[in-house]
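Lab notebook: predicted structure, single chain.

Context: the supervisor wants predicted structures on file for every construct in the current expression panel, including those that have not yet been purified. This is the next one on the list. No modifications to the sequence; it matches the entry in the shared construct table.
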Amino acid sequence: MHYDIETLAVRAGYEQTAEQENSEAIFPTSSFRYHSAAQAAARFSGQEKGNVYSRFTNPTVRTFENRLALMEGGESCVGTASGMSAILSTFMGLCQAGDHVVSSQSIFGTTKVLFTKYLAKFGLEVTFVSQTDIGEWQQAIKPNTKAFFLETPSNPLTEVADLEALSTLAKANNCLLIVDNCFCSPILQRPLEQGADIVIHSATKFLDGQGRAIGGAVVGSAELIEEPVRGFMRTAGPAMSPFNAWIFLKGLETLPVRMRAHCENALELAKWLSQHAAVEQVFYPGLESHPQYALAQKQQSAGGGLVTFRVKGGQPEAWSVIDSTQMLSITANLGDVKTIITHPATTTHSRVSPEDRLKAGITDNLIRISVGLESIEDIKRDLARGLDRLLTNK
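Prediction complete. Output recorded below exactly as produced.
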């Protein structure tokens, strides 16, 4: 039977136990007992399906995996210990020494470090290109190119990549298209339906929605996920904990409602910031002034919960606005019901070289806001303290 995504978010992927509970059970166990030595052998060999060890088979984690796979329109999902371990597991499972990856330059700073400092040690070559210039992607392809990788919208400038165009290019060159869907979630965007092969999540962000737990996920076809990615996760051990999986299940239940509210607040905040005299530029896919506005309207159902803007001035002015807030949370997380403000150049992208930050448009006067679910008027008033002060201090 077909169910809408709101129903899947609440009910999908769970098998009630003999206790007949209405809320999903947590299985905080490291191992499982068998009826006999023969059954243990059958489980470990894979001849009999069932739980073996919670590093790679746990009922609570499996429920989260099944639910998210259905919500994303994928066949299979692997839960991991963090968003970064989801990216690591994907590339370690699917690539080998000598492979080449084309990546957007507009990715999370730590992801870039993972590629250039660590995966490079194992012989993986990565070329970074413009998120939005299909020509650069095409020119970067080599005979050994294995995959394309990107976040859309990007962090922090909310650049929107053309998934259909990249999918066409990837397939024509026998490459995988791997998309980080952290900022939209399956509520606003389903990359697999637009030609992506794999979707990656930091469940820590919008999937949880309340800043409570760390986790990640990889979704795609069974062929790409089960043996390559789950096999790496099973062996290397970056596993999601059962308790965190249960938290993410509770987060998924409210994800459709929260994402709509995030988007409503973010759009209103973006419009307000666009009119403020102390603001130089606003980046939000839901604004008509956004360079990829038409594309965002086509492949996303709303603009998302992140708004980024440049203040007039430099780092001192940006820090002044951040430090003037009294309600907003100064932290580098995002996707929380609490509104979060951060300075990307000195936090999330501080490990990226100044030259690469500049290429990605991450200037010293840039501020990122993950718009929460508080009163939008209170959010604006809190930001106005610092923004108005910039005008009076001229």
